Structures are given as C-alpha cells and as structure tokens.
Amino acid sequence: MQNKKFYVSYNTVHKLVKKLAGELLATGYDPDVIVAIGSGGFIPARIIKTFINRPIYAVGISYYGLDNKHRDHPTKIQWIDEVQSQLVGKKVLLIDEVDDSRATLAYCVGELLKYEPEEIAVLVLHNKLKEKDVDFPVEIKRYFAGIEIPDLWIKYPWDAEDIEAHTAAEREMLSEMKE
Ligand code: G4P
Ligand code: MG
Q1: pTM
Q2: Ligand 1 pocket by Cβ (under 6 Å)
Q3: 64 C-alpha vs ligand 1 centroid, how far in Å?
Q4: Tell me, what DSSP letter sits at residue 158?
Q5: Is residue 171 included in any domain, yes or no?
Q6: Cα 43 from Cα 26, distance rounded (Å)
C-alpha cells in the first residue's frame, strides 16, 4: 500500500456505475440477479439497480474476518441461504467496489459457481493495475471495471467522516492530475 490516496466522491461513484451499467447492457448481457459483496459492494449495487432493476442479494466476505485481524484467506462473514436457490441457471451480476488483490472476488466467484448459475459477470468500480494474487476461474467471460488505476489506496466516500472535505479532496486531486 502506498501513502498516496485516490479520492472518490459519491458523484464519481454514481457516474462510474451508470457508465458500467451502459457498457454491460451494450454487450447484450441481461442479468437476472445482482449479488453485492459487502460491505464495499453495497452502495454500488444499489446505484446499479437504478439502471438495471433486478433484485439484490448480499453476501459478506472479508479478508480480515469479524475481529478485523488479518487472515490468510477470505472468509464468509454472512452468506444468505436464499442466494443458493436464487442463482441456479441464472445470469448473475456480481458487484464489488474494488479489484485489488482479487482474492476476495475470486473466492466469492468460486463459491457462487457451485450454485450453477448460467453465467457470472463481474463488475467493479476500480481495478488496480498490479500483479493479482489469484486469477478468476475460466467461467468468468465478462469483466467490467469503471476505471483502472495505479496501486494507490482508494478513499471511498462512505468511509469519509467529513464528506465536504472528502469531496473537496477529490476535486483538488483531479485538478492536480490535469496539471
Ligand atoms: P479484492 O478481491 O476485491 O481484490 O479484494 P482484496 O481481498 O484484495 O481486499 C481486501 C479488502 O481490502 C477488501 O475489503 C477490499 O474492499 C479492501 N480494499 C482493497 N483495496 C482498497 C482500497 O484501495 N481502498 C479501500 N477503501 N479498500 C480497499 P473487505 O475485507 O471486503 O471489507 P469491506 O471494506 O468491503 O467491508
Ligand atoms: Mg470489499
């Protein structure tokens, strides 16, 4: 992780999601259900529902576990039984906020594939351009990232304690990037 931060405002999140929804629909993929990986995927999933109105199922997977101590593999912290019966033969749209090491995402894809969906498309707001710890299973044919960025720490608006300062920090960062 680097010291430099990449600030992202709510407006930017909304615009990225809208763009992603357009790109997904343009490929002809018409999802039956949305699966959000919590907690980072919750808000993007709700926004995409505005453009692709499908039911949202939430799963909770964390690399760090409930006690926030580091673990060496992703673990399920919440997994709704409902998900299983709702995915068989379905076109799934799996949403998370960031593709970082890919460990959480790939683990989640692997678990969901056990339910024999017709297909899973993966959609993330940000993909960090870096060596990934794991690859997606070959079943993943559709992958959409709103924007690809260097390996910086992303500051999402839902983590901000002062949203005005956060939004201003993004504005400043973007104007510096233009210079
Ligand atoms: P990946 O499969 O999506 O690449 O995730 P990875 O396991 O590498 O990431 C571990 C945790 O770190 C995830 O949180 C992920 O959301 C978070 N993370 C990775 N990079 C960033 C970043 O640049 N900014 C922020 N804010 N978070 C990042 P998690 O354990 O799923 O918890 P949650 O925060 O989603 O609840
Ligand atoms: Mg996450």
Answers
A1: 0.93
A2: 39-40, 62-64, 74, 96-105, 153-154, 156, 159
A3: 10
A4: G
A5: no
A6: 23
